[in-house]
Amino acid sequence: xxxxxxxxxxxxxxxxxxxxxxxxxxxxxxxxxxxxxxxxxxxxxxxxxxxxxxxxxxxxxxxxxxxxxxxxxxxxxxxxxxxxxxxxxxxxxxxxxxxxxxxxxxxxxxxxxxxxxxxxxxxxxxxxxxxxxxxxxxxxxxxxxxxxxxxxxxxxxxxxxxxxxxxxxxxxxxxxxxxxxxxxxxxxxxxxxxxxxxxxxxxxxxxxxxxxxxxxxxxxxxxxxxxxxxxxxxxxxxxxxxxxxxxxxxxxxxxxxxxxxxxxxxxxxxxxxxxxxxxxxxxxxxxxxxxxxxxxxxxxxxxxxxxxxxxxxxxxxxxxxx
Length: 322
Prior knowledge:
Distance between the termini: 46 Å
CATH class of the largest domain: Alpha Beta
Helix content: 40-55%
Strand order of the largest sheet: 1-2-10-7-8-9
């Protein structure tokens, strides 16, 4: 199990390579939700999402011999860019296996960061092909089910606590559960004295219908594989969570809320108009969930909403809302 010390070590390891993204109070959202609301602008991370944190933490841990053989990853979007960027920065070759329906902007970005890309019919086939490359010596950088990856993503939680020590609630989206697991462990493992109010913050997970593998796993009590990803939030599109991330969710998260694509897109528009940033549905869904759960807050709450990524095609948005 990943511990707080693993996340603290990850922070030292990756510090020279990643941005410390800003956290700012939003007057607009504070008025809307009737409490103190802050935005963690992780979409300003290099590549437009949190993914380089886990990628750097993993690749930096490899031996020189392992680096010579390169790394391979499976992704339909943000993980591809994070691994490509981290690998290229560290002088390591990278190969990304992506489903054939991956939007062109993600394909272009992965290649732009220096990766080779191979298209497979779907995400399940991409995962199935991994063994071919690991047998030849490449290291698989898992998008979420790996201790070094989770520890790297958990550094987001450490930054939140430092910038907002009075934090009471955090909203984080769930794809496979790497970010939510890391953030929850970071925030729920610190001594209570590290939090201004003395109570450890609650962490709420968020998914969209059609990309709700964690919610379904929680309901079933075991990992459930989705037959297809139908949500517009493609970066939440893990076909299944894992025993590791399910266990962490059960132990550390307050709950998982599932919102509709329509709700996520409405909040995406609201965020663009009021906060002046373009995020992904995988980010805006967190605001939709916070709005649904607003009865959990008091006037003295301090709610942090993580905008975890901003890699979204405006053409896709226009088509979805036409």
